[in-house]
Amino acid sequence: MTGACQSILIGHEGEISKVAFNPQGMRILTASSDKTARLWDAETGDCLQILEGHTDEIFSCAFNYSGDTLITGSKDNTCRIWKC
Questions:
Q1: How many Å apart are CA 24 and CA 57, to the nearest integer?
Q2: Which of 12, 25, 22, 20 is nearest to 61 (CA)?
Q3: pLDDT tens-digit series, residues 66-83
Q4: For residues 67 and 50, what is the distance between their CA atoms, to the nearest angstrom?
């Protein structure tokens, strides 16, 4: 480990409240006050998918054990389940 920055994930338009790696370590999920969650490639830093639909800030996100399903929790009083 060199301590060097590998990637910078750019794209959210609001504060990022939560980040999570998938169980395989190949994807990163971020949740933001911009009402979106984003799925990223952990190696390249590329945004793979923007998850839209919440009407307020997303404050929580997680992968399931196998890494193929996501859940987001929002201040709009809903949780959403997404297939990735």
A1: 27
A2: 20
A3: 999 999 999 999 999 999
A4: 17
